Amino acid sequence: MKTRGFEVITNYDGKVNLPVRATFGAAGYDFEAAEDVVVPSIWKQGIASTLKAVLKKETLSVNEKLQKEVKPTLVPTGIKAYMGPDEYLQLTNRSSNPLKNYLWLANGVGVIDSDYYNNPDNEGHIMFQFLNFGLVDKKIQKGDRIGQGIFLPFLKADQDKATAERVGGFGSSGKN
Ligand SMILES: O=c1ccn([C@H]2C[C@H](O)[C@@H](COP(=O)(O)OP(=O)(O)OP(=O)(O)O)O2)c(=O)[nH]1
Ligand SMILES: [Mg+2]
What is the distance in A from the centroid of ligand 2 to the CA of 73? Predict the structure, then answer.
């Protein structure tokens, strides 16, 4: 019987490892990066875009420019997760990431909903969303452990009336 667990996304078949807990008492399943990804330094992104705006004497305010060019980077894991309807997978950072690599999870914690699994847009591909607060770009290599996932139960409110079906992630569920 399937209760909760991980599977590999179709395109990554045979190319990635399923998440594992590192020790007997670990709460989190460690996820690996499925590809080499560069997470650019936010300072570099910000300074470059500010300079461009100043040199071009653009009318667009520098703040607007910064907002457009300083973005988190999505790091693919090649993994999807299935679970019960009253459960979610909480993605959290590794405590060593800010200390050693200047990597922050841009969304604080990530919430992987049970209905994200096998959604029609991206099959339920789990991504970690990083900002690099370091001064230099950070190269994440395929196979590096980037974060962890903890399965948790959640409660529903008396007024609960969810109606829609999930079709994707990252802002797919409405206009705003
Ligand atoms: O760090 C994250 C956060 C979310 N997701 C995926 C799984 C989740 O089920 C879906 C939607 O996430 P969330 O509800 O937090 O974001 P949203 O901005 O509300 O998007 P949506 O409108 O699709 O719900 O995106 C990730 O892969 N990584
Ligand atoms: Mg949502």
Answer: 19
CATH of the domain at 98: 2.70.40.10
Which ipTM value was assigned to this complex?
0.98
Q: Is 130 part of a structural domain of the chain?
A: yes
Residue 95 belongs to what domain range? 5-39+72-153
Which ligand sits nearest to residue 148's alpha carbon?
1
Ligand nearest to the CA of 107: 1
Averaged pLDDT, groups of 10, the chain, 176 residues long: 97 98 98 98 83 75 72 96 98 96 97 98 98 96 98 97 90 84
- The number of folded domains in the chain is 1
Ligand 1 atom having least distance to the Cα of 127:
27
Question: E-assigned strands of the chain?
Answer: 5-8, 29-32, 37-39, 73-76, 79-82, 87-93, 103-105, 110-113, 127-132, 138-140, 145-153
CA of 111 to the centre of ligand 2 (A): 8
Rounded to the nearest angstrom, the distance between the alpha carbon of 106 and the centre of ligand 1 is 12
**Whole-angstrom Cα distance, residue 43 to residue 46?**
5
